[in-house]
Here is the input.
Amino acid sequence: MKICVIGGSVAGLECGVNLAERHDVAIYEEHREIGLPLKCAEGWINFSGVEPYVKGRKVKEVHMNLLGENFRVVDNFVAKGDALQIVSRPEMEQKMAEIAEKMGAEIITGKKMKIRDAAEQFDLIIDASGYPSQWCREFGGKKPYGFAIQAFASNDFDSVHVFFKERFDGYFWIFPMKYGGCKAGVGFFSKSPHVRMRELLGRFMESQGMRAKGFTASPVGCYLNKPLLRKFKVPVALVGDAAGLVDKGGGEGMSKAVISARILSSCINNSRLYEYEKRYFDFMSLHYMAANFFAFLRKNWKLLKTFGKVGFYDVAVKALRNHYGKKQI
Here is the structure.
């Protein structure tokens, strides 16, 4: 089978790793270098049952802070469970590209592929183009999306710091980078047109004694883009951010991109393509349930503080780790 993958992202490269040995796979990446430019944070959740392709930086704790006026911290609690690690996304994507090429995938950089064109040459198209998806760009049906902006800074941390504001559908963060320094950012799950995000991030960073070295911004695919399987002359499957798989609890997408790509690849290799969507959500149902509950807590400070103080988040991480440790893709 001739397969076209649109996007040399984590999801797209994972498809190449899992499909190239048995199929003729071409991966099209519109940028000239795999892994760049880097637009997102690089946290990888540890309870998904899936390991990243490169060694990450251990996060000792996750500090959750509640912000009052002028970004003053009015309360906080600490989650000590081994919930996540920090990876270098460019390093990981380049490693994945190397493996995919060894398996037989062809990677074409600096070229944007459209579904309309790919359908004339391939038997199956995998849309791993990020958010909004290439499908939505060409055929409409664009979903709502979150939006994030972040900046690099020289300050270094051993822990992740997350900051919540009342009546704010999102959060601020400080993530250490794998090789030193950090990223500070702010993300909305439902963006207000009246909020100037760069100005807001600048005020937050100033309150933390940080100076921005450069900004990046991107939409966040946190609204499901169902169905995950479409058709334009040939089947078109959406994976990762293109499928809107980022959850609205924590905003993490890398492990979900890998999981969706592995499940899709398994379905293709076993001639069960049309089971893809059901298998993905069957596998991930508990994760989304927990994430939606956390998104609910984020909007209710009293409950957020109560659950935080009694160590609920550590318990939830252990339960999720145990659950996914018993499942196989």
Observations:
- The chain has a mean pLDDT of 91.
